[in-house]
Design goal:
Largest sheet: 8 strands, parallel, barrel
Structural class: alpha/beta
CATH architecture: Alpha-Beta Barrel
CATH class: Alpha Beta
Strand content: 5-15%
Radius of gyration: 17 Å
Number of helices: 10
Length: 248
């Protein structure tokens, strides 16, 4: 099945009003490469400004709470980020699994909440360096997909992202064979769970993606795009990844 490439940026806890000027170049690249879907997840404080600045670009949140409202100090609901202008959210990011001790069940519940409130979802999975070194990477990813993927998941609203935690922001990248292997395993696990619908779900690779390695990574089987961290903070670094995706 042919799946459109998706290049999604994740600004993490970076950016301010001045940084939003970078979205102009990113939006221009998205318009110039209509065969590729482009999205950027900005901090909560910038969602509304970003959505107003580049209305043709998909702006998202980096997380949501699994409840629609309530006594959850410091949290933000899917309904709130949608009202601010977000059209998607990331859930289960490895930095939240590690730093905030979120579980696969949390990612499952947040995915459901986002879908319930009209957001599309980028659901993340991936192993730690210790888990890979112990030969457990495949089992860890399979277990995370099994426990995180909603029963009604399909490609119309959910994208999976594989991000080896040890490759994020380190400049280290798995071999092409390692990336292809995990993506194939994730696809197979989704097929076990949701059948043929799995073939419509995009799987992104995340972890030190740059303009230099994007073409090689994005040409692999079952790699349907990239979830980009640091390189998405500037148009200069992000646009070459979009261009590489468009050339495939």
């Amino acid at each position: 099945m042919m799946r459109r490439k998706l290049v999604a940026g994740n600004w993490k806890m970076n950016g301010n009003r001045a940084a939003l000027a970078e979205l102009n170049g990113i939006a221009a690249a998205a318009s110039a490469n209509p065969a590729v879907d482009v999205a950027v997840a900005v901090p909560f404080t910038l969602i509304e400004r970003a959505a107003e600045r580049v209305p043709g670009l998909a702006i998202g949140a980096q997380d949501v709470h699994d409840a629609d409202k309530g006594a959850h100090t410091g949290c933000t609901s899917a309904a709130q980020v949608r009202e601010a202008g977000a059209v998607f959210t990331i859930v289960g990011h490895s930095e939240r699994r590690g730093d905030q001790h979120e579980t696969s069940h949390d990612a499952w519940a947040k995915s459901a909440a986002a879908h319930r409130n009209g957001l599309t979802v980028i659901l993340c999975c991936g192993e730690t360096e210790a888990e890979r070194d112990a030969g457990r990477a495949e089992r860890v990813v399979q277990a995370q997909v099994e426990k995180s993927l909603p029963d009604d998941a399909d490609g119309s609203w959910l994208t999976l992202a594989y991000e080896p935690r040890w490759a994020i922001g380190t400049g280290r990248t798995p071999t092409m064979d390692e990336i292809a292997s995990i993506h194939a395993i994730a696809r197979a696990k989704m097929r076990q769970m949701i059948g043929d619908r799995a073939d419509g779900v995009r799987i992104l690779y995340g972890g030190s993606v740059t303009g230099d390695n994007a073409a090689a990574i994005l040409s692999l089987d079952n790699v349907d795009g990239a979830l980009v961290g640091g390189a998405s903070l500037t148009a200069t670094k992000f646009v070459p990844i979009i261009t590489a995706a468009a050339a495939l």
